Amino acid sequence: MAAILTERRQFILKLVIQEFIETAVPVASETLVRKYKLRVSSATVRNELATLEDLGYLTQLHTSAGRIPTDAGYRFFVENLMDWTPLSPTEQRTIRHQFYQVRSQLDQWIHLAGTILARTAQNASVVTPPRSYQSRLKHLELIAIHDTTVLLVLVLHDGTVKQQTLTLDTVYNQEELRRNSARINERCADISTSQIEELVISDQQRPYPEFNELEQQVLEVILRAMHQFEDQINEEIHSDGLIEMLSQPEFIPALIKAEDAERAVERMRHALEILTSGRGLSLLIPQALANEGVQVVIGGEHGENEMRDYSVVLSRYGVSGAVAGVLGVIGPTRMSYPRSIATVRYIASVMSDLLHELYGIEKHSLDQV
After folding, report:
1. CB atoms within 10 A of CB 54
2. Are 332 and 248 in contact (CB under 8 A)?
3. Can you name the residues that pair with 323 across neighbouring β-strands?
4. How far apart are CA 348 and CA 294, in angstroms?
5. Nearest by Cα to 318 from 92, 129, 192, 130
6. Are 142 and 164 contacting, i.e. CB atoms less than 8 angstroms apart?
7. Separation CA 236–CA 272 (nearest Å)
8. CA-based nearest residue to 140, from 174, 173, 182
9. Confidence (pLDDT) at 13
10. Residues 81, 15: Cα–Cα separation, whole Å
11. Per the confidence metrics, is the pTM higher than 0.90?
């Protein structure tokens, strides 16, 4: 008969995870019985630990060592066992006061959020600036340069200006270019990338397309430019707290067994690469933008080998339908999930409040929690 996760096993699993998060030391049955004054023997706890290992929630690094949680164990803990504790009222007041001191300086929010996240969660932080959900076309100009060479000037709603030269098969005078750009502005101004794509596809399916050959060519260039801009936004990640993360025992060879020291150095190298290049994180940003609430990705759930030793806690913040960004923390899988989640959730709510004030929109509910 297959083992089941009884109430006692869940309780022991919770204690093991809490103890390992606190101490970074594999947990033995004797430690649990002594520290938590359990009313069962060490042998009984040892049997339960063995069962939890068979179920895939715990593992042993060495035969004689205590148990540590697996990714599956952490996942079960986060979803079913974790005590949800918000930041203290004092911490909340302090954080909100810090943000309101710079509420008129949008660029300072990102740096402040990164600093507070790192300090409060004691791990590295990641923050992306608030941007439009999708880039929107504001205005297009086509300017004749020489013969078949045309300058395309694209202005997006956030003020971004893109310029690109086009080489056409036909010579167009400035008045013809003005008429073509005016038609595109009339049909495409104030709409998003996806809406322009839908417009182009539906037009191409018509027996008599609305857009002429030049306009179709220009629209293809516009779409490529807007997609490129959106991809760049997803890669714009501010990080902080490298010192906090590297202060964790997983990254300090002197605190672990000699045979694990090499892996600790490798972890350190990976951490530096992740935070400086954004590798592994840039793929998570679009997912976090598309979801409500706090997202927790643990170890092997990333699907990328270089992220297997890390957990990431992310949340979207912003004004629904207008602008949004992502913030969160990254650290070893042995992170304090209750503390990290509470910190991410609260700072996301504060930054959402500030953006609602900036845009003059009343906030009826916290979209991201």
Report:
1. 11
2. yes
3. 132, 319
4. 9
5. 130
6. no
7. 17
8. 182
9. 97
10. 10
11. no
Distances (CA, A) of 183 to 162, 210, 212, 218, 224: 19, 10, 10, 11, 19
The whole-number mean pLDDT for each consecutive block of 10 residues of the chain, a chain of 369 residues, reads 82 97 93 94 95 96 84 97 94 95 85 95 91 78 92 85 90 94 92 86 88 92 84 73 83 58 69 71 79 92 82 92 87 94 96 85 49
Amino acid at 28: A
Q: Which residue has the tokens 């008045």?
A: 175
Residues composing the chain:
369
| CATH number for region 137-234 | 3.30.390.60
Contact 340, 121 (CB under 8 A): yes
| Rg over CA atoms, the chain | 27
Any residues with CB less than 8 A from the CB of 245 and at least 6 apart, and which?
Answer: 118, 123, 124, 251, 271, 330, 331, 332
Element (H, E) at 152: strand 149-156
| 169: helix, strand or coil | coil
The second-level CATH assignment, the architecture, of 89-129+237-359 is 2-Layer Sandwich (3.30)
Indicate the residue type of 50. A
Q: Which residues contact 139 (CB under 8 A, 6 or more apart)?
A: 154, 155, 185, 189
- Is 2.30.40.10 the CATH number for 7-81? no
Q: Answer whether 89-129+237-359 and 137-234 agree in fold.
A: no
Boundaries of every domain in the chain: 7-81, 89-129+237-359, 137-234
